[in-house]
Amino acid sequence: MIKVGIIGVGGISQVAHIPNFQKIENVKVEAICDINEEKLNYVAEKFNIPKKFTDWEKMIEENLDAVVICSPNVYHAIQAIKSMENGKHVLCEKPICLTVEEAENIFKTVEKTKKVFMGAFPRRFLGETIILKKLVEDGFFGEIYYLKASYLRRRGIPGLGTWFTSKKLAGGGPMMDVGVHMIDMVLYIAGLTEPKIVFGSTFEKFKDKAVDGGWPPIDTRKGDKPIGKMEVEDLATGFVKFSNGAVLFVEASWAGNSEVGLKGSLFGTKAGAQLPDPIESKNPVRIYAETNGVISDIIPEIPKMDSYFEEVKHFIECIIEGKEPITKKEEIISVVKIIEGIYKSAEKNQPIEY
Ligand SMILES: NC(=O)c1ccc[n+]([C@@H]2O[C@H](COP(=O)([O-])OP(=O)(O)OC[C@H]3O[C@@H](n4cnc5c(N)ncnc54)[C@H](O)[C@@H]3O)[C@@H](O)[C@H]2O)c1
């Protein structure tokens, strides 16, 4: 039996991780921790979880195999490091941490403790990611030299006034929160790491007309007391040049007068691809190819995957089989570098070189 403890039992824990771990044979959600006691009691009762803690440092001393970190972003690195030092495998929510220094410390601890450390990037388990990654590895796209990643909302700030909009607790706004998903997805598909130059800008144009976007789901917010302000950007954009000359353009917003949705593109020397928003079923993944000299579009059949379930299943397999997790050190550090670089560049008004 693999015993799991979860730190932070808000939206992502209640909607995805707890029910998904409870579907896997020989896995038990043994303990949960949250500083909000009303929510802690509600979740423990709803999901029948035996042990409850308000102090995560106490929970990680328990007899657990793994800790899942679903707390506000600022705590991820310290909770991951201390959990591994206490002999626990770790699944850590995105954004893995706030700075490159924190990311390096996490991986020093992985090397020292030999524990499984996996980043929670569910988009890696989507059908389109799996199919495109395989085609990239088979050389179908040739050399990939330009990538686009976009996650835009028209009006939708998560938990307005909660930790999500606190600079100290979240570390940043939409680029940290949702841009991270698309950056990780396109870089993973393209097999690209080593960002060298990052240039970014952030905007705060919707502070006075900010609208709560409904995440975390209202029924998961028991006892939350949003008292904070909107201290982070509502839109961020970045331009990244990699050591091999490839370029990424990324944009992420919680509010803006723009089209909405998640999109990605890959431009390769032999073929390219467009990743449309998965909820737009009429707009499939499209591969821009050339077949026997004829410019042609290919619409691949994409398998439907339950990406959040596949994510936790992979984590458990890594623990049981001693496999290396899908999220590699260089990949995680590259994504953290890009986001850190965008914020630093926006603040200093100059490109950041790594
Ligand atoms: N992978 C995804 O698709 C996805 C989706 C949503 C959120 N997330 C990530 O998951 C994390 C949690 O997000 P959420 O939407 O569940 O937020 P949430 O606000 O619903 O839940 C966070 C919980 O952490 C608790 N908490 C705060 N400080 C704590 C502490 N020191 N110790 C223990 N608990 C503490 C809060 O009381 C709250 O219940 C964030 O890092 C977020 O970026 C990932």
Give your account of this protein's structure:
With 354 residues, this protein is an alpha/beta fold. The chain has 2 domains: 2-120, 3-Layer(aba) Sandwich (Rossmann fold); 124-308 and 336-353, Dihydrodipicolinate Reductase, domain 2, CATH 3.30.360. Helix content is 33%, strand content 25%. It has 10 helices and 15 strands. It has helices spanning 11-21, 37-47, 56-59, 76-85, 100-113, 127-137, 167-170, 174-190, 307-321, 329-348; strands at 2-7, 27-33, 51-53, 66-69, 89-93, 117-120, 144-152, 195-203, 235-242, 247-253, 261-268, 272-275, 286-291, 294-298, 352-353. The strands form 2 sheets. Strands 14-13-12-11-7-10-9-8-15 form a 9-stranded mixed β-sheet, with helices on one face. Strands 3-2-1-4-5-6 form a 6-stranded parallel β-sheet, with helices on both faces. The termini are far apart. The model has no long low-confidence stretch (mean pLDDT 96). The chain binds nicotinamide-adenine-dinucleotide. Residues 7-13, 33-36, 39, 56, 70-73, 75, 93-94, 120, 122, 159, 162, 177, 216, 220 line the site of nicotinamide-adenine-dinucleotide (NAD).
